[in-house]
Design goal:
The chain is α+β, with helices and mostly antiparallel strands and about 525 residues long. Strands 11, 12, 13, 14, 15, 16 and 17 form a 7-stranded mixed β-sheet that branches. It has a 4-stranded mixed β-sheet with strand order 1-10-9-8, with helices on one face. A 4-stranded antiparallel β-sheet has the order 4-5-7-6, with helices on one face. The longest helix is centred in the C-terminal third of the chain and has 18 residues. The two termini are about 45 Å apart.
Amino acid sequence: MRRRDILAGFGAASFGAVPFGAAAPARAAGPAAYRRGNGADPETLDPHKTSTVAEATILLDLYEGLSTYGADGDLVPGAAAGWTTSADGLTWTFAMRPDGRWSNGDPVVADDVVHGFRRMLDPATGAKYASVLAPILNAEAVNRGAMPVDAVGVAAPDPLTVVIRLAQPTPYFVELMAHQASTPLHRPSLARFGDAFTRPGHLVSNGAYVLKDFSPNDRITAVRNPHHRDAAGIAIPRVEYIPTPDLAAAVRRFAAGEIDSLEDLPADQVKALKARFGAGVVLNPALGVLALMVNVRKRPLGDARVRRALSLALDREFLADAVWGETMLPAYSLTPAGLDNALPPPTMAGRDLSPLEREDAAVALLREAGYGPGGTPLAVELRYNITDNNRNTMVAIADMWRPLNVATAFAATDAKTHFAYLRDGGPFDIARMSWLADYADPQNFLFLVESGNDGFNSGRYANPAYDALMREAARETDLAARARILYRAEELFLADLPWIPLLHYRHKHLIGPRLRGFRPNLRGVSPTRWLSLA
């Protein structure tokens, strides 16, 4: 009850219970353009230099990798018509589409793909997502500058064949080929215009759309690519990507009929938005986790009993509902459900206990470790990056820990400072950590706490048994056997809890009545190619 009293002021401003669409003004027959709310203006439309979700949304329409995403978010052939892999999983052969065309009519050939990979990995490019291509043979050495770019394991034996050699089996490799890091580039445009190749009138792309106009702080406009193989089946002729950095203002523009969809919502308003727009508010699981990273080098946090006690005392359902307004899901595992190449994730101890039973179990563990009520108080500092939801989450957690005789202090900074501090090895007790996966495979979560992965494993967790399982999984080519190995690795993680999972992310969409064909999915992708307007 006390938590709920403390957080009573965190709720959303009411919009009133109005049926979906009823509060919006009558919409005249709209233009042929799909007006897509898209977070922020891109810093770049160079697919090899991009790093944000807003950029990825635009690039998914402009470009097509060897694979791409279908209407429901599943992987489908893209610039390649299909692919095969060798028995050892180390060689992938992609057959290019003979009818593949750039937006100026030039054929898309295998050399365009090879050139794209080499440019992405060239240290001179400064690609932020070069690590996406790390499974390719010699990719990491090339990106470090230790080998020349032509040493990367990608070849074009003929104009319609791309052969890629890997350093180790990678079951999720096809999904990496859908990432913007893997897009081919139109070499004559790059040679002619240099870094200016991304400007309207210069940009030649191979996706369903081609760049038409870029008006900063207003919109980016793309039109249907007439040379795309499926041009006749692309229903929306024009898409406008509208930056929406102020989500509350974006909701008002949506209600006024100025925007057809939003791909993020203000978390504190979701309940009110559901009351107003009904089925127009779409929430679905995402590839992300919010957790507390523990510095296992510090006493007493290095004691797994203490970490398990702190985890048991957390009311994740309350955090998901009251603090995050149903935009998150309670997390009792590191990996979310629904991943490819995976078993349903294991569950941490205590999930089936009542809140009082969890608190009793937590007290018993702490007393066993020499802390807890009536004993030595446990003092911890919680570090986090400042947002309203993050602050409210940390306040709630501190209150949940108070009955355990845990005294909590806070250290709050902006996001850039927070994550740089952790990456650079700054001292901490417990820190907020979030991860949005790049591909739908459990490895993309479990690798975070491998020893030596100091960029993410700032708490310096090191378990030789865990590392051995991750190495075994990396060598295993049988997908069912690999899934079992990764399951065992996550069981070890949940016993040790170097990170304490709190919540799994949900995608938050607001879909207007004009838009047809939107299908929520775990990856959160919805290429304009598969949508239509009423």
